[in-house]
C-alpha cells in the first residue's frame, strides 16, 4: 500500500475512533486531558510526557507559531471518536503530532482504567482537503459533529463555541474559514444550513466513521 503523503500548508481531515467502537472519553477529565495533549504535543521539540512538561512551564502558555507542527482549524471530541481539521506546517508534522497524541493519551487512559493494549482503531484516517468548498463544509461538519450524530453528550467538546463567540485569539486558527464571511452570524447560518444538508442528503457520508 502506498504511504499517504502530507504536504506542508495543505489541509487534512484527521479522524479516528476507539477500538471495537469503545468510548475513549469517559468523563470531563478525559476530554480535558486529550485537549491538553492536543496543545502540548504540538511542538517541534519533543516534550517527553505531559507530566514532565508540567515542570517546565504551566499549561496554557501559548506556543509560538514557529514551534508548531500543525495548525488546528477546528476539532471535535465525541465519546468514541474525534475529528480534526489540520494544516501541516513542517515536514512530517501531522505524523509526528498524531503519534505523540495517540501514544500519550493511550498511556494516560490505560493507567487510569487499569487496562492494557491499543485504545484506538489502528492508525488514524487522513483525507486531503482538495477544494475550498470542501474545506468550508468540513468545518461545519466538525464544529457541529455532535449534532450530526445526535449525541447530546455533555462531555463532547468542539471548537464551535470558539468560532461563534468572536474569540479570534483561541486555540484554533480560524481565519481561513471566518475571513470568507462578512461576520460571525453569516458563518453560523452557513454552518447550520450545512448541517441540514448533511443530515438530509448525506453528502458527507463517506467521512463518517461507521
CATH class: Alpha Beta
Q: What is the alpha-carbon Rg in Å?
A: 17 Å
Parts with pLDDT < 50 across at least 5 consecutive residues: 59-66, 205-210
Number of strands: 5
Characterize the overall form: globular
How is the quaternary structure best described? single chain
Q: Give the end-to-end Cα distance, rounded to a whole number of Å.
A: 22 Å
**Would you tell me the overall average pLDDT?**
85
Return the CATH architecture.
Answer: 2-Layer Sandwich
How many domains comprise the coordinates? Answer: 1
CATH fold label = Alpha-Beta Plaits
Question: CATH superfamily name?
Answer: Transposase IS200-like
**Estimated share of beta-strand residues:** 5-15%
Number of helices: 8
What key attributes describe this structure?
single chain, 210 residues, alpha+beta, 5-stranded antiparallel β-sheet
